[in-house]
Specification:
alpha+beta; eight-stranded antiparallel sheet; three-stranded antiparallel sheet; 25% strand
């Protein structure tokens, strides 16, 4: 008798249109809750991504060969925006910064001259503050032959001198003043000298690693 009663009750509920309505409402509520949960996950992911890219990381692509062999053409990399919030930039750091002539563009070069330093380029060697010993630059990919002599830089107190590793092709601090003058950003070569240097406010972050098309840590260089 008991099994029969149970079966009869099920048949009665299935035949009642009003009994289906709560089931439909439950299904609709469940779907809505799941949809909201997915929206929350997506919004959270977007906010975290925005926070990371705007506050912690700077995402960059390298379009030229100026930093070979450390960074190849087309490499994508991340830089640490917080690196220079806690300590000063150091010589040989690979830095992402705003182009001194056009801050809508980002550049990546190696930091060579620190604030207040006297830097000379003589016969493909770099000398700091009149030292007899040139910098040891084992990262250069080939013999430095182009624009390798006769440059003198007096780095302002709030700025840095940046050069590419691949000096034979890199358009770096050696050229920026002349470019600024030719582009009408200054009315004399003397006035254009300020474009030679990267102001601390123009620093975006320290390059940390490439992630595409391959992963590679950009380790600190030691002499």
């Amino acid at each position: 008798m008991e099994p029969m009663e149970i079966e009869n009750k099920e048949m009665t509920q299935n035949g009642n249109p009003e009994a289906k309505e709560p089931e439909k409402k439950e299904e609709s509520t469940s779907f809505l809750r799941e949809l909201i949960s997915w929206v929350e996950v997506i919004v959270a992911a977007v906010l975290i991504s925005l926070f990371l890219t705007e506050v912690v990381l700077v995402n960059a692509m390298v379009p030229t060969a100026s930093m070979e062999n450390l960074i190849d053409v087309g490499d994508r990399l991340f830089g640490n925006r917080l690196a220079y919030k806690f300590h000063e930039p150091e010589r040989f750091d690979v830095v992402i910064f705003k182009n001194p002539q056009d801050e809508s563009e980002n550049y990546i070069k190696r930091l060579i001259g620190l604030p207040g330093e006297h830097v000379e380029i003589r016969d493909a060697k770099i000398y700091i503050n009149g030292s007899d010993q040139p910098l040891v630059e084992r990262y250069l990919p080939e013999e430095w032959e182009i624009e390798n002599d006769g440059y003198v830089f007096d780095v302002p107190k709030d700025s840095y001198l940046m050069l590419g590793d691949n000096r034979n092709v890199s358009l770096d601090a050696r050229y920026w003043a002349e470019e600024a003058y030719e582009n009408g950003l200054a009315d004399s070569m003397e006035a254009a000298q300020k474009y030679t240097y990267v102001n601390k406010k123009q620093l975006l972050g320290k390059a940390m690693f490439t992630y595409y098309p391959h992963f590679s840590l950009l380790s600190d260089y030691e002499e």
